[in-house]
């Protein structure tokens, strides 16, 4: 699939003034676009128009393509559109917030989530519900015994269980269908945040009457090799019929009078304003491509490459790998967080980028409680860090470096990373790096970024 990734051959500058072919190991944040998405957009954009109610050919075509995009995305997760709806928005965070606004809420209503969630699958629930967090084991896995206890304790007031399909930090895969069966036996519903899962594994929501059915699934186009930022919430129509939309405005109504509002049907009621048609086209094209290339083959490739990466990381004496590090006990997608002893995580990430031309991510990955737990920080250490952080000094922010593989990643990409980490471990790097307290980032002293040589607006 490397030939189908846009921009993979681009060279980028490094500190010594040369250029190198960029290695992207930051796919967990955003993946590069598939050529399938780019080509679909190039073919569609000459006919781009506002959807719904336009009488011109371009509007009629755009409407058809926009609606067809929903059907393709539903097919990607095997959702039954007779009972479920596909709601398009700007990103996965908005999708989860939308559901938080739509479900019946109150002081005694409970949502169960976990300590391993991305902030986007934690914070939205806090505004509307009593949130109960399931703990994790010392290695970062879900504590399923704790899950069972809290499910039994709160089932009478439980509105929803919201859980990641693959952990944003460690890549751990969750037994989503087994958990769904338990949640349904308790009389509640389950949401799977599949933003990190979808690019790596096949998703099957299963039929609505299956005990292991996934009630709600959330996707993020920017992690699925689709540009233009689109988020998707898929779930039962009934969940959205008896509430006002979280945003109201154009397209959300059937009739408006000076004193009354009659809401439109689904999904229109939940998609206020002019939609991101180009984003829907890109995401549908990417979903089609992933299905055509076979998610099973992508999984097989990734498993081999993740094992290879774990074995190569272990060659470095001072490396610390978080989560399961045994390649033969692999239950994670291609996301591996690590640290190098005595080297700040943000410094290591900076050297990899500035001198190796390798893109990774460092920090807490929008999952502060989980990272603090994985780092085994004491309450005093965590409190000290928070105080400094809130005072505007991020220079001592705890965290990790995260490499995240894509369907196109190769052993050569991993080898480039390992070579650079070994250099850092022995002090074999050129730059003098200073930390910016406001951001916690390290930058090479005296270096000026040649951004204008690569892109600038025509003014």
What does this protein structure show overall?
The structure is a single chain. The chain is of the alpha/beta class and 459 residues long. The protein has two domains: 2-32 and 294-453, Aspartate Aminotransferase, domain 1, CATH 3.90.1150; 37-292, 3-Layer(aba) Sandwich (Aspartate Aminotransferase, domain 2). The chain has 13 helices and 19 strands. It has helices spanning 35-44, 57-77, 92-102, 123-126, 144-154, 176-185, 238-241, 277-293, 295-313, 345-356, 368-374, 379-390, 411-425; strands at 11-13, 19-21, 23-24, 84-89, 110-114, 130-134, 158-164, 190-193, 216-220, 231-236, 253-256, 261-263, 319-321, 335-340, 358-359, 361-363, 400-404, 433-436, 441-444. Strands 4-10-9-8-7-5-6 form a seven-stranded mixed beta sheet, sandwiched between helices. Strands 13-14-17-16 form a four-stranded antiparallel beta sheet, with helices on one face. It has a two-stranded antiparallel ribbon with strand order 1-2. α10 (345-356) crosses α13 (411-425). The mean pLDDT is 96.
